[in-house]
Amino acid sequence: MALNDRWTAPVGHFIVGVEPADSGNSLTAAATMLIDYGVPGIPVVKDGAYCGIVFEEDLLGAASNNENLPVDQFMRTIPALSNRTPASEALRLLETNQVSTLAVVDDRGSVLGVITVSRLLATTDRDARPKLVGGLATPVGVRLLGGGVTGGVGAIAVLGTGATMFLTYLAGDYVARIIAFISPPVVQNAFWFSTAMSGVALFCFLIFLRLMPLSGYHAAEHMVVHAIEQGEPLELDTVARMPRVHPRCGTNIAVALGLFLGISYIPWFLDPESRAMIGLLAAMFLFRPLGAFVQQNFTTRPPTEKQLLAGINAGKDLLRNYQTASRITPPVYLRLWQSGLLHAIVGSMLVAFILGLITAVLPIPDYWRVISGI
Q1: What are the DSSP calls for 259-326, one per residue?
Q2: What is residue 4's predicted lDDT score, i.e. its pLDDT?
């Protein structure tokens, strides 16, 4: 960053991301945090909001008395900076307060990190990062969210995810219908046949997903999320080494739901209550290993360089936006909107509606009308 640009840039671009100490933490805990983060001061919060900052020199006299005393007895009530404060103003306030470190907060007083003199004077690419990052793959790129902000492709691309998933489901269902249509009547009348065809439809759905570009972008999304959460640089060589499987992937939730419903509703010799209990236990204990297997073999595949770069660009976009976020802990409704889940649902509903209109005017036999009721 050029020198002139540096001083006009928001201070959020220079902060060191740290976890604050709670006002009830002991001096020992605060000292440990100072060592772990390697900064001169640690912000202190009460009920989640910034209330002061404690410096290493503040612990000098206190430690000789009782290292178990609460840190709020020794913190300084120096005002924090907004993450949108210009760097030049941050430097002036560091000078005015005669300290080397100031806390940086969002509009609600939640701590984002600290700013130090050295961070302002030395250029670095060590941006503060959200603790948890989520994402969504689309047919044309990656959408990421975390810390109250998003990065990557927009709402239209996410609509495409819903549309693609729905069309893929239809393709799998039609393959199963074709197999059922050409099967001998004696097989079609077997009690297990409909269950088997549901399995065929699901397997075809997963195979089709694996073959689509969406699975490559899905892998890129996971790999970039791993890199951000592990503090790795968002460079092609580094991100390419990250795993494709992520423990918080929505695939795991889908697997858990599928296990529960499959065991609960497929008719077999046990009563419904026992099947529901077995389904619940299976979902609880198997959703992670089975979800990881499905991710590795079906819902992701090794990304191309183009797909990986799309994920990296989304990650860099997210981190840029995070440095000047107005609030790092948005309400649930905003997180739901940012996730793109609602957009994907709308995308699938739009495709279903359009296909329903088309099939309503075409002379299609009832057996082949997967979409009906329009």
Answers
A1: HHHHHHHS--SS-HHHHHHHHHHHHHHHHHHHHHHHIIIII--PPPHHHHHHHHHHHHHHHHHHHT-S
A2: 56
